[in-house]
Request: fold
Amino acid sequence: MLVQTLHGAQAELGRISNGIVRQLAASLNLPRAAVHGVVSCYHDFNSAASAHHVVKVCAAEARQASPELVASTPRVAQNSG
Reply:
């Protein structure tokens, strides 16, 4: 339930601020640290406003993008997971 709620909040607000973490923790009766831990663990959640368009290129073994596509993609942030 927490992850779905965080996805909804980020979709509506564009990010998950500390204030949102506090409000969600209180309304879901969870420790703030638990909510913050989920936000910081999942790379899909942002605590700061992100670019309007986000492009993700999968480099997983089963779904590798072409090397040319990966080489031509600007690397603003890279997730190793």
Summary: Residues 2-72 form one domain.
